[in-house]
Specification:
It holds the Pfam family TsaD. This protein is an alpha/beta fold. It is built from ten helices and ten strands. The protein has a five-stranded mixed beta sheet, with helices on both faces. Strands 8-7-6-9-10 form a five-stranded mixed beta sheet, with helices on both faces. A hairpin with a 4-residue loop joins strand 1 and strand 2. It binds 5'-O-[(R)-(carboxyoxy)(hydroxy)phosphoryl]adenosine (KG4) and zinc ion (ZN).
Length: 340
């Protein structure tokens, strides 16, 4: 079964073709970062309009890369939420129309389920994690720890009470004058920071529980930056201390979540999963426990169509799809998803 995947929940247009026999055939991505940069954040209406411009050309590009025509598609998968309502509607509208015209099934995919299943896209079957596992979802909009009992059966173990981890990276970067989206740049700067020059707290780690709070950290950074000499070295030193605080906090909670869920496999997904210090730290933790941690390749950590095509393919294969109505869910609880 060849499934066309469409992702338009935020500021990336992603399209992919996944074949349930031979794996990923093609994927194409267009990032709107340059469009939103001058506003310092994503402007929802501009995002929707740009998805309208880019989606059909990207579908043509992905089909050409897969060496097929639109008639070769057996099903369509699209992100129906959570995300920006206008942006989601573009993908949902195109996906539903295509499915209607081709008389094939279409399935609504939960964006975070896409992220969570991305590590299962890897070619090497031995490298693929199998449920049950614990998933750490760390993106610009989410920070969640989820117990994955089976594909489609998700239990929320903990989540952020305020800023998401990626949002904390972006806001902290902005505060120190880095352009949007600052997360990856802040991480790069952290590499030049000196160990121990600054130290920030690890929020909510000294009491039990699996929830997070990152907004206080931002204030700590603001005070350190305001009271410092604002030199390049200071910026790098603060970036390093901030990154260490976020990474340590995530690692402490991941270890607790593994203990709570009684399993030793951790899967990390979402944009912050591309962070090298986080990857190294969780790798050390897993090795010490005799367990394992899997990450999607960096390109599939951030938003992409491949993860949506894959998650949708699993559900379509199980016979799941919906009627032709174009429906999106800007907010959508993963625990309400049907099992596969
Ligand atoms: O999953 P994603 O592409 O989009 C959402 O669904 O939110 O995640 C984007 C987030 C942004 O906040 C970005 O700053 C952050 O991931 N990010 C990083 C890194 N690369 C992306 N944060 C820290 N270190 C990185 N290397
Ligand atoms: Zn995402």
């Amino acid at each position: 079964m060849k499934v066309l995947g469409i992702e338009t929940s935020c500021d990336e247009t992603g399209v992919a073709v996944y074949d349930t026999r031979s794996g990923l055939l093609a994927h194409a991505l267009y990032s709107q970062i340059a469009l939103h940069a001058e506003y310092g954040g994503v402007v929802p209406e501009l995002a929707s309009r740009d998805h309208v411009r880019k989606l059909l050309p990207l579908i043509r590009q992905a089909l050409a890369e897969a060496g097929m025509t639109v008639g070769g598609i057996d099903g369509v998968a699209y992100t129906a939420g959570p995300g920006l309502v206008g942006a989601l509607l573009v993908g949902a509208g195109v996906a539903r129309s295509l499915a209607w015209a081709l008389d094939i099934p279409a399935v609504a995919v939960h964006h975070m389920e896409g992220h969570l299943l991305a590590p299962l896209l890897e070619d090497d079957p031995l490298g693929r994690p199998e449920p049950p596992f614990v998933a750490l979802l760390v993106s610009g909009g989410h920070t969640q720890l989820i117990a994955v009992d089976a594909i489609g059966r998700y239990r929320l173990l903990g989540e952020t009470l305020d800023d998401a981890a990626g949002e904390a990276f972006d806001k902290t970067a902005k505060l120190m004058g880095l352009p949007y989206p600052g997360g990856p740049q802040l991480a790069m700067l952290a590499g030049q920071g000196r160990a121990g020059a600054y130290k920030f707290p690890r929020p909510m780690t000294n009491r039990p529980g699996l929830d997070f709070s990152f907004s206080g950290l931002k204030t700590q950074v603001m005070l350190a930056w305001r009271d410092g000499d604002q030199s390049d070295q200071t910026r790098a030193d603060i970036a390093r201390a901030f990154e260490e605080a976020v990474v340590d906090t995530l690692a402490i909670k991941c270890e607790r979540a593994l203990e709570a869920a009684g399993c030793e496999t951790l899967v990390v997904a979402g944009g912050v999963g591309a962070n090298l210090r986080l990857r190294a730290k969780l790798g050390e933790m897993a090795a010490r426990r005799g367990g394992r941690v899997s990450f999607p390749r960096p390109a599939f950590c951030t938003d992409n169509g491949a993860m949506i095509a894959f998650a949708g393919a699993l559900r379509l294969q199980a016979g799941q799809h919906e009627d032709a109505a174009v429906r999106v869910l800007p907010r959508w609880d993963m625990a309400t998803l049907p099992a596969v």
